[in-house]
Structure formats: structure tokens, C-alpha cells
Amino acid sequence: MGELGEGLSGGKNKRIFIAKALYRRPGMLFVDETT
What are 7-31's pLDDT values in tens digits? Predict the structure, then answer.
């Protein structure tokens, strides 16, 4: 896995992004696309 998430599938990359967002600001998460 690279610095910007290279080598991950789209779904895994999205889950990691959401997890990081929840960790940084647990009270505020905006998702523009649901799957």
C-alpha cells in the first residue's frame, strides 16, 4: 500500500477513508456517494 492508497481496490480505499474520517472527527462525516 502506498502513501495515497495505491494498490487498494475502490471499496477498500473508501472504507479506509471513512474510518480515518471517523477517527479524526467522530461527530462530523459527510458522504457524497452511497454504495
Answer: 667 778 788 887 887 777 666 656 6
Amino acid at residue number 29: L
Between CA 4 and CA 34 the distance in angstroms is 22
Backbone angles phi, psi at 11, to 5 degrees: -65, -45
Helix (H, G, I), strand (E, B) or coil at 18: helix
The answer to whether 13 touches 2, Cβ cutoff 8 Å, is no
Question: Which residues touch 10 (CB under 8 Å, ≥6 apart)?
Answer: none
If you compute the radius of gyration of the chain from its CA atoms, what whole number of angstroms results?
Answer: 11
